[in-house]
């Protein structure tokens, strides 16, 4: 019934679409989540590092073939939590995109993490996949482990979910008694 109401609202027919594709449509097209965005932070840092002749190391990369295999191997019902969260976000409407942006720009990490749009993004593939999500998070933890052992300063552009989620990178760094400067994340 909820999906039918969204179909009517957005003049779409989701009856023959995959749950994940429907979820992405609701988040990206209907809420216009990525419309009119500036350069991605990763690209800005990469360009600045290149201009300054500073070495960079990409983190969180997985072979495309592995991603496709993983996606096609997932049972459709594994995408239902994503669809439920995407519908909840779409039911609220585009104002949650603005609210998420305001939380982001005001360094309100708890507010950002509680935003229904951020919740939906965190409940969707690949982050919720046991194999792929765990692999991506593990790559970030390993890279940051290595970075804190090196002398000097490290700049990392990390997905907010990986940083601020329960048991995420910031929780792990705090558990090691490392100095964390920045906005409150809990």
Q: What is the number of domains?
A: 1
Query: How many whole angstroms does the radius of gyration measure?
Result: 18 Å
Order of helices and strands: HHHHHHHHHHH
Overall structural class, as computed from helix and strand content, comes to mainly alpha
Shape field: globular
Distance between the termini: 35 Å
Number of helices: 11
Largest sheet at a glance? none
- Can you give the mean pLDDT? 84
User: β content, as a range?
Assistant: under 5%
Helix content: 55-70%
* Number of E-state strands: 0
- The residue ranges in which pLDDT falls below 50 over 5 or more consecutive positions are none
Write structural notes for this entry.
This protein has one domain. The mean pLDDT is 84. The protein is globular. By secondary structure, it is mainly α. The protein is built from eleven helices and no strands. The longest helix is centred in the C-terminal third of the chain and has 20 residues, at 130-149. Helix 5 (80-92) packs antiparallel against helix 8. It starts with a helix and ends in an 11-residue tail after the last helix. Helices cover 60% and strands 0% of the residues. The protein has helices at 2-10, 19-30, 41-51, 64-73, 80-92, 95-105, 109-114, 116-122, 130-149, 160-164, 169-175.
């Amino acid at each position: 019934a909820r999906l039918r109401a969204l179909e009517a609202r957005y003049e779409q027919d989701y009856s023959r679409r995959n749950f994940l594709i429907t979820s992405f449509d609701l988040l990206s097209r209907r809420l216009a989540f990525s419309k009119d965005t500036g350069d991605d932070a990763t690209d800005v840092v990469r360009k600045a590092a290149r201009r300054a002749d500073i070495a960079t190391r990409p983190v969180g990369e997985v072979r495309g073939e592995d991603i496709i295999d993983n996606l096609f191997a997932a049972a459709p019902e594994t995408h239902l939590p994503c669809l439920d969260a995407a519908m909840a976000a779409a039911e609220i409407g585009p104002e949650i995109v603005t609210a998420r942006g305001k939380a982001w720009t005001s360094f309100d990490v708890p507010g950002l993490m509680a935003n229904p749009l951020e919740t939906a993004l965190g409940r969707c593939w690949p982050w919720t996949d046991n194999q792929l999500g765990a692999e991506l998070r593990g790559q970030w933890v390993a890279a940051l482990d290595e970075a804190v052992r090196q002398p000097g300063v490290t700049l990392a552009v990390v997905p907010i979910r990986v940083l601020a989620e329960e048991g995420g990178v910031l929780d792990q760094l705090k558990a090691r008694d490392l100095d964390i400067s920045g906005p409150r994340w809990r």
